[in-house]
Amino acid sequence: MSEKSSGLLALEKIAGFVIPYSEEKLISMKPDNLELISNYAARTKQLDAILSILTKEFCATQCDWNSDEKGMYCGCCEAKFYDTSMIDELLILQRLEARNNGWEKGFAKGSECDYFSEEGCKLRIFKSPTCIGYVCKRIFKPFTSTPEGKNLVDNFYYSMMDVFAGRIDVRRAQVLKSLDKAIAYGSKLVIMKNTSGFLT
Ligand code: SF4
Ligand code: SF4
User: Measured between alpha carbons, how far is 113 from 37 in angstroms, rounded to an integer?
Assistant: First the structure.
């Protein structure tokens, strides 16, 4: 049995779960792929935290589309993009992450995607660029009453569109740059939300 590399142990820390030795493909991952995935996950973790602050409360309490009939209180997803622009190792990590979050295959309701649940998506940091980069325009409404807010929303939205269109590709680090931009603008939106109090 090969030892886990320091890079893999660092990835486990970011992921928040232990990678079983039975996942040979992850244990013996090429260094380039490991570096890319670690860099990707470190950023998606930050972006997920930002999106949680920006969207969760709005989805649960203010979205008129999020009705009792649908029975969804933590956001919605009618897509099936978990495997878009991905590499094999990330698909395995998705399965491990979802299981760590209480996922059981086939319990999806109201969505085509197996990773969707009544609590929302069971993936957080190992979402595909398409999934993490999608942002629902409804959540921006409270931010756009001032020119400053509107400008910030535009910048955030366009950087998220770049993430959405990004690919996991060891030869091109573009998706990492797009994530950095989205994190920078998203952080400013969080500050705006916290200081303005318009969503509290
Ligand atoms: S993601 Fe958009 S449409 Fe879905 S519940 Fe949230 S605000 Fe509503
Ligand atoms: S992985 Fe999550 S965000 Fe992506 S399509 Fe499935 S439920 Fe939606």
Answer: 22
